[in-house]
């Protein structure tokens, strides 16, 4: 030995592109999203703790990485079977965006992730392409007679639909694109501040299907 320390092998780790974190928001890069997909797509991801290790390498809480996986649609979290009451909440609010339905479920005492709600809507083919006059009155926080008055005056176009039992009469059906046109052309008759704000934003930004 010549007195010099023997050089030690240096472990080289693959660098991970940084995802900047603020107090309430994490900025995700395409490279990190791909790592999350790979961690969840591995056949043995549960037994090896791939997601937990990735969270540690990123320096993020596991819950933050798991939530990102849900938004990417790759989460494998097994959810409990949907109850009839939960399904009813989803069906009643199917005209709203999934994130708003998550809030509605929480308000009713149920906790479901955004990914779970999206999967429920797709698997159950739950889709609403319009509103009855009563539903619209509830969303706009007005009396049902106000909706009927708009329809009868011709300002709000609606389709007359017979109920399954003829003896029960009919109901009015209003499509989103027709409602958007009404709001633009007759804004003076609508008290915007009284409308459900989440629903209104989704409607006006075309997130609600026609």
Characterize the structure shown:
This protein is 48% helix and 5% strand. It has 210 residues and is mostly helical. The chain has three domains: 17-78; 84-124; 131-204, Multidrug-efflux Transporter Regulator, Chain: A, Domain 2, CATH 1.10.1660. Strands 1-3-2 form a three-stranded antiparallel sheet. A hairpin with a 7-residue loop joins strand 2 (159-162) and strand 3 (170-174). Mean pLDDT is 77; it is low at 5-14 and 20-24.
In short:
The protein is mainly alpha-helical and 210 residues long.
Features of this protein?
elongated; 3 strands; 48% helix; mainly alpha; 210 residues; Multidrug-efflux Transporter Regulator, Chain: A, Domain 2
Secondary-structure blueprint of this entry?
Elements: H1 30-41, H2 45-48, H3 50-58, H4 62-72, H5 84-92, H6 98-107, H7 114-124, E1 131-132, H8 133-140, H9 144-152, E2 159-162, E3 170-174, H10 176-185, H11 197-204
Helix pairs in contact: 1-4, 3-4, 6-7, 8-9
Beta-strand content estimate: 5-15%
Number of strands: 3
What is the class of the largest domain in the CATH system? Mainly Alpha
Helix and strand sequence = HHHHHHHEHHEEHH
CATH architecture label name of the largest domain? Orthogonal Bundle
Question: Kindly, what is the distance between the CA atoms of the first and last residues, rounded to a whole number of angstroms?
Answer: 81 Å
Radius of gyration: 25 Å
Share of helical residues? 40-55%
Reported for the largest beta sheet, the result is: 3 strands, antiparallel
Given helix and strand content, the structural type is mainly alpha
Give me the CATH fold name of the largest domain: Multidrug-efflux Transporter Regulator, Chain: A, Domain 2
> Shape from CA axes?
elongated
């Amino acid at each position: 030995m010549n007195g010099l320390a023997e050089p030690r092998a240096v472990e080289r780790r693959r660098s991970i592109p940084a995802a900047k974190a603020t107090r309430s928001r994490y900025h995700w890069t395409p490279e990190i999203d791909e790592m999350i997909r790979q961690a969840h797509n591995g056949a043995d991801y549960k037994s090896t703790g791939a997601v937990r290790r990735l969270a540690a390498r990123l320096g993020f809480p596991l819950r933050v990485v798991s939530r990102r996986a849900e938004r990417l649609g790759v989460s494998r979290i097994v959810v409990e079977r949907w109850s009839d009451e939960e399904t009813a909440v989803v069906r009643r609010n199917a005209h709203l965006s999934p994130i708003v339905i998550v809030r509605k479920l929480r308000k009713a005492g149920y906790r479901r992730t955004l990914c779970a709600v999206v999967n429920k809507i797709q698997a159950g083919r739950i889709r609403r392409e319009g509103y009855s006059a009563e539903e619209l009155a509830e969303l706009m926080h007005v009396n049902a007679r106000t909706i009927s008055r708009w329809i009868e005056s011709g300002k709000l176009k609606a389709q007359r639909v017979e109920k399954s039992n003829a003896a029960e009469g009919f109901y009015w059906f209003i499509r989103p694109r027709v409602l958007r046109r009404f709001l633009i052309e007759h804004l003076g008759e609508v008290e915007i501040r009284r409308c459900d704000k989440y629903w209104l934003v989704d409607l006006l930004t075309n997130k609600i299907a026609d």
